[in-house]
Amino acid sequence: VERGEVLAVGDELTGGDRVNTNSARVADLLLGVGVEPRFHTTVGDDPLDLEEAVRCAAARARFVVMTGGLGPTEDDRTRAAVARVAGTDLVRDEPSWAAIRERFRARGLRPSPSNELQALTPRGGRVLPNRSGTAPGFEVRIGDSHVFAVPGIPAEMEVMVREQVLPRIRELAPGAGSLVRKTLHLTGITESALGERLADLMASDHDPRVGITVSTGIMTVRVLASGPDPAAAAARAEATAAQIRPRIADLLFAEDGQTLWAAVGGLLLARGVTFALAESCTGGLLSRLLTDVPGISDVYAEGFVTYSNAAKTRSLGVPEDVLARHGAVSAETAAAMASGARTRAEARLGAAITGIAGPAGGSPERPVGLVFLAVDLDGRVQVERRQYPGDDRGFVRERAARDCLFLIRRALLGAV
Amino acid sequence: VERGEVLAVGDELTGGDRVNTNSARVADLLLGVGVEPRFHTTVGDDPLDLEEAVRCAAARARFVVMTGGLGPTEDDRTRAAVARVAGTDLVRDEPSWAAIRERFRARGLRPSPSNELQALTPRGGRVLPNRSGTAPGFEVRIGDSHVFAVPGIPAEMEVMVREQVLPRIRELAPGAGSLVRKTLHLTGITESALGERLADLMASDHDPRVGITVSTGIMTVRVLASGPDPAAAAARAEATAAQIRPRIADLLFAEDGQTLWAAVGGLLLARGVTFALAESCTGGLLSRLLTDVPGISDVYAEGFVTYSNAAKTRSLGVPEDVLARHGAVSAETAAAMASGARTRAEARLGAAITGIAGPAGGSPERPVGLVFLAVDLDGRVQVERRQYPGDDRGFVRERAARDCLFLIRRALLGAV
Q: Chain A residue with minimal CA distance to B217?
């Protein structure tokens, strides 16, 4: 296993305008070639800060992957900073400059003079051609470290890391082996209680390494194993996972990064249970999550987003007197929505969410965060009432969708 | 303006299992109290790496905010690492331990022995109570630097930074002033062409700082200004923005981090245009985005997720012969879906998306990534055909929803 570092560049990242998704993706890819990113650094466009970050990364990691700062504008300073730390200057790479001109020509455009800057590369470095964008990347040696720079646009970054950086690392470090991660996802236990069930495996000297992370009620147990090749590393990770599974069998709902929605969508597909969705306060979020699953259209009969009472009655057949007597946010309405969606769409399962996501619309009897969830499977209806804390619209919507997925899962498993 | 650093802790972050959203959020909050995060560092749970990261951050920033590693399990090592770098040891904070026990008691549970670890805090530090979770945070002085540690759970982190860290920084650095960011969001221009329009403002010594970032076809111009107080900083940022706006007036669709969907939702609300949505391949994504906008239910008549031809006919009234002659993925079907949604829901505007998100389902005539978008406003129908590259389901879905939002926007603006 070799030491790695991921270095993301951009004021929009250090300033918090934008969440940095590239570093996690690069890190994930590096594990596969036996490089463990020990640090991620994010630095802004300031030239001195950027040099400091490059120097520091090159000093502590054998492989450094930089993303961003290769654009054509004034604030793109990765090329210059890396050249200075490497003690060299920038030269124009003629094939890159030809490729940039050709790229513009093919789109009926002319490159700006500033695009010429994108063909500059540190002298003595290797150019990494970019087949999906304008800016080429490069590889430069700084001390014992190999520093790779690729664009920050995620789609370009992904292709260049996969096609050029990873094979090059394999070539430079053929003995690095592989790191393989297994994750087990569960719910319904506190972190401390889970930690005690797994204490022997979580000691800092345990190999494979075992850790726990928490995210709004979902726990993930993480196993990281190394081995001379991917199969050997995977076997070691699996051996540890096999020790963990019996200790959490009652709580486990997915493995290896599978999301809750993919797990539930997979269950619906595997059992061939056709379904329909009726959403009020989640506004299509539940539908959006389940349709992330490729092939789901085989069993997804139809979805309805019905905020208004009129739509609930027209499209779902919720009786007007149910709405009048119990209100749109009630167990009765949730049940009628689930059953109505199921019946209208001629599906086996109907699921519904109705509630008050906020920030406005609450009342003393029905405060913001009050949500009713319902599932009707073959005519058997289950309803749950939830009161989520706070008045954050996004939080209430996400929790409601997630809990509805758990409810669908329980209905499906109970129906076996 | 003071130098800051954000330090996130966790193997799940360095390993790329999970995207680090905390650091961006903390950075955004720090700007408001005049602290500019020059670096973000992410480090795993390895004790020596963690110490190195703390040492490095404390050496280069006056204010360091750490997130994560305060849980009750073996792999939570922030407390110990900070204490070692500060040259001190850990002591149990009795009020924190009492609060932890009380928290468990209130939920009818007992703390695990491991929860007692969460009451440990570096000797000589200040405890930061946590009113929404188990783990308290702390503040420790290391050299000239103030190091704050808060839990990694986003909701807890947010409350503690807002309520405790920011006021404390104001107290320690009353003269830091404020940093204010303005962002202008636009589309329909290359990055290099935009850079040339703004070249004079983007010079590295220009104050306020101006930069450009790109994300799948959307450009953001970012202005960062400092001043003795928020109002003065905002005025300086606005003065620069006022220089930029006339240069990009034709392309600008939103400002200050407003999303495209918020801009379009705001337009629908401001004009009181009721709308209905019909989605096939995006599966509710468009609906989910527009319903992120508080109050949108005032104008959102109804949404339909119709994968099957049967659902398109039943709920949207798409004629069977249109489906038979042109197929579900066609300009004719898209138009019929938009008009059908509008009519069924008795709305003024109907928008529809039908296409092939992949990875399966493509054919030579209708490859993966082919999408038709339609908008019907008061009976005037516009249809667009798009062929997105690649076969990434998520990418195709996001681009289709985004382009449909642009189409809705153009229809609304053209209708004035």
A: A153
